[in-house]
Amino acid sequence: MVDSSPNVLCFIVTENMTLATILEFILRKSDFIFTLTDSKKCIVPSSLHRASISDSITAINQNLKRLLSKKVKHDLLESALLDIENELVIRINEITEYLSNIKKHTKNTI
Known about the structure:
Layout: E1 8-10, H1 15-19, E2 22-28, E3 31-36, E4 41-45, H2 53-68, H3 74-90, H4 92-109
Helix pairs in contact: 2-3
């Protein structure tokens, strides 16, 4: 699902993510952005244009664990991270196309 802004790709926020205090999960330009219930944002640069999806998943996991491990039960956080991974794997073609379009748009505006 694409947000009304052409620069944002929105992902499904599952019940597990919500319980782990994640309210929003988007890709804006080349950054994965997670909005948390305490209004904090976790921003993880996407490495998909130069590395594998597993590198992005590892970076997301590390950043979210650092922010949430003291606030959220371990099992719940792990479930949320698995949901994020599943969403990224399922939508990898859409993500790749989105990043390609962003890259083309950026080149055309320079």
